[in-house]
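Pair request: fold both.
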Amino acid sequence: MKTSFSIFLLVLLAAFLGCAANLQRPSIQEQPLAPGDRLRVSYSNGVSKRFVGNLVALRADTLFLKNHTVPLASSVTKVEVSRGSAGTALGGLVGLGLIGFLGGAFIGGIIADATDDCADLDCLPVDFSGLFLGGFVGGILGAGVGIANSGERWEELPDVKYVLNQRSEESAQGSENLNVEKLSGRMEKEVEKNGSTALTLGIMLSAVAGLVAILIF
């Protein structure tokens, strides 16, 4: 009974932190590429390289980024588009770390109170130890989730090499009006997958923290 109750409360904390991390991430809507988009292009031409820049144009077999020119046909391995910033690492550390500390302390106190065999004032040391341990575990968990979800968010465009190679075989007529409709459906799936990353990470970290807390309690 004691173990099941502890697991239930810790999973509840993990779900709460995962949802908080997802709320911290701005919503991403499917949209085509357009001149001015910030891209991160990985390519290999004997040596693996990666450039970050704003999209200028796509003409024939060459991708033009601001300050960079990347030959497409045989070298591009990955293209990612920036979807903005999810905040700084310090912001994630403090924000979700504090949420995790408060939530963990609350849950730790409940677990300690529900599992001790003492009464009245004799329980205070046990209850405070539960508050401290729960807050410590929850704070580390929240800080980890916050840091993992900070910084610039990059969304990979699947199968982009095939699409760009097809593009390089077409005429350059109208190439400045970028046509990447073939990517649209796949982009949406990538967004859905990225949106669940925070919750998955929170649950995985919580499983480890839960084992520690259960052994102690």
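--- second member of the pair ---
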Amino acid sequence: MDLFTSNKQHFNLIGAITIGLMFSPFSLANTEGSAITPYIINGNQAQISHYPYMGLLTLNFLDQSSPNVVTFCGGTLLNEHYVLTAAHCLYASTEEKKEELERLEVAFNIETISSDIFVSNNRYQASEIYYPDTYNNTTLDDDVAIIKLRNPVDLNLIPAASYVKLAPSETYRQPDFPFTLIGYGKIAPDAYVSAGSTNQSDTLKEVSVTYLEPMECESSFADTKISEHQICITGPIMNQLRSGGCQGDSGGPLLFSEGGQLYQAGIVSFGPDFCGRPDIEVQSVFTEVFDYQDWIASVLNGTETAKQKMTATNNMDNSGSDSGGGGSLGWLTMFMLIILEWKRRRNQAVL
């Protein structure tokens, strides 16, 4: 079992503007991190307008001497205040991790990560984190979490009719049932990346996958039992890799269509030790959303206790209609953001 811990991406604001003005795609540094995250193998370009509820979890370091934003997991918007994701993305076993999560934001309307995550109207600060008391960070049982946002998501950005809809039943539990997996993560394993190229995606990807019976799934993991609260998927082999998820997509949704409506069946949790392995059937394991609807409802109703509450103020730049300064570098950060926003709008105008 692989916990997909190596896909935190750092997007440097100065680098994004400087390189962006030279018409290069983006600047990032890939570092080892504590977040558990999977990605899309053999995926196609996805339109965010088809999945308006899709969010990208970030850590905002725009108040630092080298302003940057870190991306690490996905999530889906339940309503204007709450985002559904995976518990392993937010589990804090140390004070250092809790302090880092004080910078947690969720970004929406992200067509191009390297520019859109710097648009303040796309980003919403977190105020509270919830996950079940029974969550196990070793086995990943009950790997589900909810983020409460400090301010409601603007209805002009995501209308209420566009919030994610959760699976009303388990009718998908049948052989070869079709799903769609979406995410912002890697597009190939690290071993497949040649010198001078990258396996990081700067856009949302989607891929078609199918349901895999639990017994077939469990046989792929020597020391892991698949519970009735988890869903396994497989995918076709293309380009010598089996289609599915891996590093960069944790917390994101597994979707299916019924009656012309898309529903979320699962939350990306973990996968095999080598993403895209063609020699085994299973590609990703998901927390089954249907089994946690009572817990989700209790969080939304205010009857659950938060695992972490963020402080009311910080030194980050404005996000989600919050007002606040940018620290000693606030004026410089704001200037760079204005340049980046100007560039983004100019590029959109000529499309």
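Observation on the second member. DSSP finds six helices and 20 strands in the chain.
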